[in-house]
């Protein structure tokens, strides 16, 4: 039970990290590439240590290895949370300069830009996340390498797939827990623990949630779970009894099975054969491939004036330069680059900030902040609306139709379709995991299973997780419509193109899934059991009758045994 608690914690921790890292870059000016590197560094750390852990841990006390790994993970989570206390309280930059300046259009001197003293890649907070992810990788390696064989060698071979399936289910439950907890925590203010925090509403686009609390929860949970695991014996009480009955299972069913027990054969599932398992894996990936297209579902594109649509006085951007947030209507405002969008409810247009909308007056009410006397909104409205409607919006700047934040967006059924297709895709992808794991555990000698898992994890990192995180981060960055600016340098992305983002992510996911299917087909076509000619026939009986399996028994001087599954 403790082992499965570790499974839930590990995957909850991974998704807490992924959710937490969504808000942390906003404080440090990171883009998708930075976040991708931080995320992939976990897998790089696993790659560095997986073989030493598999080599020494396989012959050592597996419970202690897993428990110590949990402690290392706890330290890693604590390291990732430290930047919260090391950094100053989060205050939007427009409020740092002048408490009476709310980002509206005013005639003021240009603010002097103070360049960052170092590159974002040398930022100490970035390297603290790298250190934390390194410790996460080191600590989780025993769980997914030694932990799998620890389960397999302490239960019967018949029960092993069941326990490993429970292991897979709980590692799937972990991300769900992590996402829900992480999403809830991001609704808390980043500095809720500080009395001098800057008060703002969670609907404010500049809002930063309590990203660091998830790391603290992960750290505490790891410590609580690690100590019971450390108290485990080298092997569980039932392990010797299972080893006395089990044999090292084989690659395929004996060639004479059809002759000796054709009636019993009809009752056996096809996946007893490795080839059948490979077929099941391919089918699962194919189902996932079909439903991956659900990622094409997205919400309508928002209209950002100066970003993906022009101001009202420039209705033909194809004849001019691309849209710009600067316009004659805000040329006297001396606006800063602070991202603080406002919405014109009448037209559904969003402006970069109240300053770039030419607004001069701000009103606070129960519904938040509203703006008036907005020169750019009057120009945009008069250009976009017919003359019959113009009189109705002439006094728009005196109404509460211009408010801080984004305009409401109706995604229709797209959200539900996306959730259903992602669920089916995830289930299908994980369904391929158990037969893959069983093949790997059964086609290698009994004492080399941990090494086989280590090699498997190495290829997963080298070919999947490490380049995948970075690649997806770079691809996401290519769909950015507007980057934040600081002293003329790009920081994090402010606005994405939802259509382009959905198409590029879907295309990349389809390519990855096609590669998985191709690898499975190659495995099916090239698989040749090496021991069919010299293998021994092992009589085994279950509720359906006798079963003769060809085994590759690597235990010297032991007679082949009849097992009951």
TrEMBL record:
Primary location recorded for the protein, binned into one broad class: membrane
Entry's Gene Ontology cellular component terms: basolateral plasma membrane
Name the membrane topology term. Multi-pass membrane protein
Q: Which InterPro entries does the record associate with it?
A: Kazal_dom (IPR002350), MFS_trans_sf (IPR036259), OATP (IPR004156)
Q: Which UniProt keywords are present, listed alphabetically?
A: Cell membrane, Disulfide bond, Membrane, Transmembrane, Transmembrane helix
GO terms in the biological process aspect are: sodium-independent organic anion transport
The GO terms this record gives for MF are: sodium-independent organic anion transmembrane transporter activity
Residues annotated as domain Kazal-like: 323-375
- Where found in the cell? Cell membrane
What stretches pass through the bilayer?
40-58, 65-86, 125-151, 163-189, 209-233, 271-297, 416-434, 455-476, 501-524
Matching Gene3D superfamilies, A to Z? MFS general substrate transporter like domains
Family named by the database record: Belongs to the organo anion transporter (TC 2.A.60) family.
Name the UniProt record assigns to this protein:
Kazal-like domain-containing protein
């Amino acid at each position: 039970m403790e082992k499965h608690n570790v499974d839930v914690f590990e995957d909850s921790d991974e998704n807490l990290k992924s959710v937490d890292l969504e808000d942390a870059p906003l404080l440090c000016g990171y883009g998708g590439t930075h976040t991708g590197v931080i995320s992939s560094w976990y897998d790089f750390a696993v790659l560095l240590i997986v073989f030493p852990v598999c080599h020494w841990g396989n012959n050592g006390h597996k419970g202690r290895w897993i428990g110590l790994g949990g402690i290392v993970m706890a330290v890693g989570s604590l390291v990732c949370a430290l930047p919260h206390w090391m950094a100053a309280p989060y205050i939007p930059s427009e409020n740092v300069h002048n408490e009476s300046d709310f980002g509206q259009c005013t005639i003021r001197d240009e603010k002097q830009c103070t360049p960052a003293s170092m590159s974002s890649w040398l930022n100490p907070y970035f390297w603290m996340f790298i250190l934390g992810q390194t410790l996460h990788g080191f600590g989780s390696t025993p769980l997914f390498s030694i932990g799998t064989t620890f389960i397999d060698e302490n239960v019967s071979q018949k029960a092993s797939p069941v326990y490993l399936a429970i292991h897979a289910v709980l590692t799937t439950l972990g991300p769900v827990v992590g996402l829900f907890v992480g999403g809830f925590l991001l609704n808390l203010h980043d500095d809720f623990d500080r009395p001098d925090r800057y008060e703002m509403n969670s609907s404010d686009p500049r809002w930063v949630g309590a990203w660091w609390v998830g790391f603290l929860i992960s750290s505490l949970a790891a410590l609580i779970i690690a100590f019971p695991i450390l108290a485990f014996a080298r092997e569980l009480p039932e392990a010797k009894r299972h080893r006395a009955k089990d044999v090292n299972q084989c690659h395929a069913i004996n060639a004479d099975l059809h002759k000796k027990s054709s009636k019993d054969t009809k009752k056996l599932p096809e996946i007893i054969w490795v080839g059948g398992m490979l077929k099941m894996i391919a089918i699962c990936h194919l189902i996932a491939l079909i439903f991956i297209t659900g990622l094409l579902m997205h919400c309508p594109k928002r209209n950002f004036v100066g970003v993906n649509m022009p101001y009202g006085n420039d209705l033909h951007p194809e004849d001019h330069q691309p849209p710009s947030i600067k316009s004659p209507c805000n040329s006297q405002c001396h606006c800063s680059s602070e991202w603080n969008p406002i919405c014109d409810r009448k037209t559904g247009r969003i402006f970069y900030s109240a300053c770039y909308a030419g607004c001069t007056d701000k009103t606070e009410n129960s519904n938040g902040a509203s703006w008036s006397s907005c020169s750019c909104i009057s120009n945009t409205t008069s250009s976009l609306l017919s003359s019959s409607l113009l009189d109705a919006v002439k006094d728009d700047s005196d109404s509460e139709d211009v408010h801080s934040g984004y305009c409401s967006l109706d995604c229709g059924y797209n959200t539900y379709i996306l959730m259903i297709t992602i669920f089916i895709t995830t289930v299908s992808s994980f369904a391929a995991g158990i037969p893959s794991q069983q093949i790997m555990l059964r086609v290698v000698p009994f004492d080399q299973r941990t090494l086989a898992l280590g090699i498997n994890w190495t290829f997963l990192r080298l070919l999947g997780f490490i380049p995948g995180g970075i690649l997806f981060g770079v691809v996401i960055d290519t769909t950015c419509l507007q980057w934040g600016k600081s002293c003329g340098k790009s920081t994090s992305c402010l606005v994405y193109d939802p259509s382009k983002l959905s198409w590029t992510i879907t295309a990349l996911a389809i390519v990855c899934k096609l590669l998985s299917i191709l690898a499975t087909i190659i495995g099916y076509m090239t698989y040749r059991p090496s021991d069919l000619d010299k293998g021994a026939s092992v009589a085994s009986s279950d509720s359906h009758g006798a079963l003769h399996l060809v085994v590759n028994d690597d235990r010297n001087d032991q007679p082949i045994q009849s097992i009951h599954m």
